[in-house]
Amino acid sequence: MSEKEETTVAPVVESVHCRLCDGGTMRRALIKPYNLNVGIVLIVAGLLCLATGVLAFLGLLAVLFGIYFVWAKKDVWLCDKCGAIVERI
Length: 89
Ligand SMILES: [Zn+2]
Known about the structure:
Blueprint: E1 15-17, E2 25-31, H1 36-52, H2 56-71, E3 74-79, E4 85-87
Antiparallel strand pairs: 1-2, 2-3, 3-4
Bound molecules: zinc ion (ZN).
């Protein structure tokens, strides 16, 4: 087989029509589902627990949860017209 397989990777333009408004187009978007402040508070509180050695295990859990809260992103459809957000399944 000497022929090269040419795979043309077409840019996948994923968009759907918004059902909540007329003419809006929904595009894929990444949003942060959690409040950043909650995550930061958890991390700070967790670090304090770890630093003082009080409830170190809970502190570690709090830090992990905090990091998750801060970093977690959600893949959703976002309407560019009315701003509606629909969860992708
Ligand atoms: Zn819309």
